[in-house]
Write a structure and sequence with these properties.
about 140 residues; alpha+beta; 2 domains; binds zinc ion; globular; about 45% helix; four-stranded antiparallel β-sheet; 5 helices
Length: about 140
């Protein structure tokens, strides 16, 4: 489980309920835990520092990479060795169609001046990742 990798590197970890934790942020001088960690059902790990640290800074302080926050199947990792396709070309197109619709919805929201929430933004990044992964699956 990806969250355990992250949690094992943090200080003063405490549970905040189902799949939620708080810990001291490694990217700034943090006396009281201000980093929130969430494990999502799809295997992703969300990090949020209430003092405003960027996720990049938190990851680099932990010697982790963005890929450590995402399950391998969402990134299309592990596909290069054995070329067993996870999805067929029509399935890949279906993923692209669904994800691009979602991107269009977010774009329409933004065009109307609606700010995207943290979870919307990470969903948008996931959509981009899935479209890219679908492309790689279909063409390689
Ligand atoms: Zn911080």
């Amino acid at each position: 489980m990806k969250a355990q990798v992250v949690l094992s590197r943090l200080q003063k970890v405490r549970s905040e309920g189902q799949d939620r934790w708080k810990a001291c942020c490694p990217a700034h001088d943090d006396g009281t835990p201000s980093l929130s960690i969430r494990a999502l059902d799809d295997g992703r790990v969300l990090l949020h520092c209430f003092a405003g640290c960027e996720v990049e800074a938190i990851l680099s302080a932990l010697s982790l990479q963005f890929s450590d926050l995402y399950p391998d199947q969402l990134l299309g990792h592990g596909l290069k060795g054995a070329r067993s396709r996870l999805v067929s070309a029509p399935q890949a197109l279906e993923i692209v169609a669904k994800e691009s619709l979602l991107v269009a919805v977010f774009a329409a929201d933004q065009a109307q001046g609606k700010l995207l929430s943290e979870s919307d933004r990470s969903r948008l990044m996931l959509a981009a990742g899935r479209i890219h992964a679908a492309y790689q699956e279909a063409v390689t």
